[in-house]
Amino acid sequence: MGFDWTETEAVLAKLKEEVVELEQAIATGSVAAQSHELGDVLFSCVNMARHLDLKSDTVMRQAN
After folding, report:
1. How many CB atoms lie within 10 A of CB 42?
2. How far apart are CA 44 and CA 47, in angstroms?
3. What pLDDT, in 10s, does the model give residues 14-38?
4. Which of 25, 41, 43, 48 sits at 20 to 30 Å (Cα–Cα) from 56?
5. Cα–Cα distance measured from residue 3 to residue 18, given in angstroms and rounded to the nearest whole number
């Protein structure tokens, strides 16, 4: 919900937004908030991979 876009630029903007929210959650020290926001970042990354016609699991393995 709220994580589907038609333009790659919109996915990137959402990813940047989620990273800022993760930074804020880290600053609060709340593990629950950090977990939630990190999940949103990861989900946004998977959507970016989809928009670039890449397989997110393959990209992760290559990076590792």
Report:
1. 13
2. 5
3. 999 999 999 999 999 999 999 999 9
4. 25
5. 11
